[in-house]
Amino acid sequence: MKQFVTSFSLLFLFSAGSIAIAQAPAAVVTYSEARSWEGRDTLELPATVDSPLETIVAAEVPGMVIELAAREGDRVKKGDLLARLRPTYYELQRKQAQAALVEAQARLDLASRNRKRADELFSEKVISQQDFDNAVSELQAWQGRVAQNESSIAQLDLALKLSQIRAPFSGVVTSRLTQVGRWLTEGGEVAGLVSRSKLEMRVDVPERYFSSLKVGTAAEIRIDALDGNWSGKISRIVPRTNGESRTFPVLVTFNRSDSSIGIGMLGSVALPLGRTSTQTTVPKDAIVRSGGSNSVFVLKDDSSVEMVPVTTGSGNADWIAVRGNIKVGDRVITRGNERLQPGQTVQASPQ
Asked: Is 196 a residue whose pLDDT tops 90?
C-alpha cells in the first residue's frame, strides 16, 4: 500500500509539472525577415590573435642580475627598466682606463713638444735623421694610445648603459626568464615582451584561394570570447604553402588594443574573394554565438523556434550574410534570442 501511494504521488507531481510547463508564458521576442543582397563572396576561416611585435629581451653584456623591475603582466613603455646588472666590474675598468688616458695625454703633450724641438734641431742639422724619426714615431705612438684609451672608455660607458636592460618597445611583459643573483652571459634571456598596439589575426588559407586575395583588402574579424565584429585589412600574405596542410599564412591587422584581447585567442576572419553573388542576409542581432559556432533562431508557423547553424560572411551595415538552411523571407529572431531553446514557443512581433 505504501509503495502504491508513493507511485501515485510521483505520478501526480509529474503531471502537475507538465501542466506547469505547458502553462508557462511564451517568451516575448521580435523578428525580422531574411533578405537577399548582392555582395562579394567571402571565405570564413578560423584564426588566432597574434602580435607583429613579440620578442625575448636579452642582455647585451654579461653580468649578475641585481634587480628585476618588471613582472609578468606589467605594462611597460619603450625605455622602461626591465632589469639591472651589477655595474661594479665595468666601473672599475672605466677608472683604470681613465687613469691610463690621463697618463697617455701627458705623454702625448711631451711627445708633441719634443717633436717641435726636433723639427728645429733637425733643420739646423744638430740632430740626425734617426733622432728626428724617433721623435715623430714617439708622437704617433702616444696619439694612438690616447685614441685607444678613449675608445676603451666609450665601450665601458656603453657597457654601463647596457647593464640597465630596458624595453625596446612599449608592450606587456609576458614572462620573466631570469632571477636576482643569476649570472647572465651575453645574450642571456631576461623577459618576454609583446606589443598590443597593433594586433593581427593569423589565418591559414587553403592554397586554392591564393590568387583571390590581395594585400590591403578589407576583412571582417570576430573573436570567440568577445561580442561583436571588427573591421581589419589584409596586411601580409606569406607566399609559401605548408607542405602538409597545403595552406599559406595570411595576416589581417585590426586597430583594437584593449585589455580584453589576449595574444593567442581564437576567432575567425571573413576574407573577401572578389566575386559577387546573391546572398542571404539577416540582422547581426540575429546571430547567436556559442562555443565558437554561430546559429540563428527561425520562427515557425506554430510559433515555436528552430535553431539553425549558420556560417557568417561579409557585413552590410547592420546586416550580415549567412550560409546555412536559411531562405529569403524566413523570420529570424532578433530580440530575446539569448535564452531561447530549440522548440520553445514564443510570442513574436515584427521588428
From this structure: no
